[in-house]
Amino acid sequence: MSGPLEGMRVVELAALGPVPFCGMLLADLGAEVTRVDRIGQSPMPIGDSGKHDVTGRGKKSLRVDIKDPGGVEIVLRMTERADALVEGFRPGVAERLGLGPSDCHVRNPALVYARMTGWGQDGPLSGDAGHDIDYIALSGVLASIGPDAHPVVPLNLVGDYGGGGMLLALGLLAAVLSAKTTGVGQVVDCAMVDGSALLMAPFHGLVAEGWWSPRRQENLLDGSAPFYTTYQTSDGGHMAVGALEPQFYAALLAGLELDPDQLPPQHDRTGWPVLREALADRFMTRTRDEWAVRFAGTDACVAPVLDMLEAVDHPHNVSRRTFLRDGDSTQPAPAPRFSETPLVAGVQPVSGQDTEQVLNSLGYSPDEICKLRESRTIV
Question: Which of 10, 93, 208, 220 is 20 to 30 A from 301, alpha carbon to alpha carbon?
Answer without folding.
Answer: 208
